[in-house]
Design brief:
The chain is of the alpha+beta class. It is about 55% helix and about 10% strand. It has one domain: Glutaredoxin, CATH 3.40.30.10. It comes from Streptomyces ochraceiscleroticus.
């Protein structure tokens, strides 16, 4: 076996192992939440009407969306030409180690396909690690990435966040100061508008709406990656590589 084949196999094994860890952690989190809900459900039921009337919050109200992003029930940021023949849907979390493995391993291939007009990538943000581990790093990093989208620099900052991802147990992305510091790696991104956007959590609602869509979609973990609607990691025995993904895109485009 060549060194490249061994490296691809090792990367796939690490990605699969990390995804299994995320699924197990998510199951434990759900079980704990259910147990807690049994205790408090009556109190919540009694107080929910009073809470709703006092806050006046309207869950159906539209949330702020950055320039060029798509709101609605499944908020997303599109990278690449919207008219591209193939679409890759990516549900990911900036704190998720498996997401980092996917993004860093497939990055050059995705960029090539996006830049050549072969593929559009619709990014949906999730808050899986915040929910499982606690903290606000997933939310704050997601908002910062959307602030970068408003400045026309989403892809560059998105890649910086994954390249500099802290260990899962360290909620370093909860620090808005650190997120702004990382933005300095993207030329021209750090402006007063960007700083204010990050500090104010301007697009928190957009990220939270995306998380609701993730939960409602029945997905098992992050990253969830669908090419033209097909889940690329649904078959755990399949060996997905950047080269195979590229060929799948090119073959699909020939049929359109």
């Amino acid at each position: 076996m060549s060194q490249k084949s061994r490296a691809d196999g090792s990367a796939r094994e690490r990605l699969q192992a990390q995804r299994e860890k995320e699924k197990a952690r998510a199951r434990r989190g759900r079980q704990a939440k259910v147990a807690g809900a049994v205790v408090v459900v009556l109190a919540v039921a009694a107080g929910i009407a009073l809470w709703a009337s006092s806050t006046g919050e309207d869950k159906s109200a539209p949330v702020a969306a950055p320039k060029g992003a798509t709101g609605g029930a499944k908020p997303m940021v599109t990278v690449g030409e919207k008219s591209a023949p193939s679409t890759l849907q990516v549900w990911e979390d900036f704190r998720c180690p498996a997401c980092k493995q996917f993004e860093t391993g497939f990055r050059s291939t995705l960029h090539e396909l996006q830049d050549n007009g072969q593929l559009r990538t619709d990014y949906h943000l999730a808050l899986l690690i915040d929910g499982n581990m606690g903290g606000k790093g997933s939310l704050n990093a997601g908002n910062a990435a959307l602030c970068a989208q408003s400045a026309g620099k989403f892809r560059d900052y998105h890649d910086v966040l994954f390249s500099n991802q802290p260990p899962e147990q360290q909620d370093k992305y909860a620090s808005k100061k650190y997120l702004i510091q990382l933005a300095g790696k993207v030329p021209g991104l750090v402006t007063q508008d960007f700083r204010s956007c990050v500090q104010d959590g301007k697009y928190n609602g957009f990220v939270q709406k995306s998380q609701e869509a993730f939960q409602g979609g029945g997905f098992q973990g992050t990253p969830t990656v669908l090419l033209n609607g097909k889940n690329l990691f649904a078959d755990q025995s399949a060996q997905m590589t950047p080269q195979k993904l590229k060929q799948m895109v090119l073959d699909a485009n020939k049929k359109k």
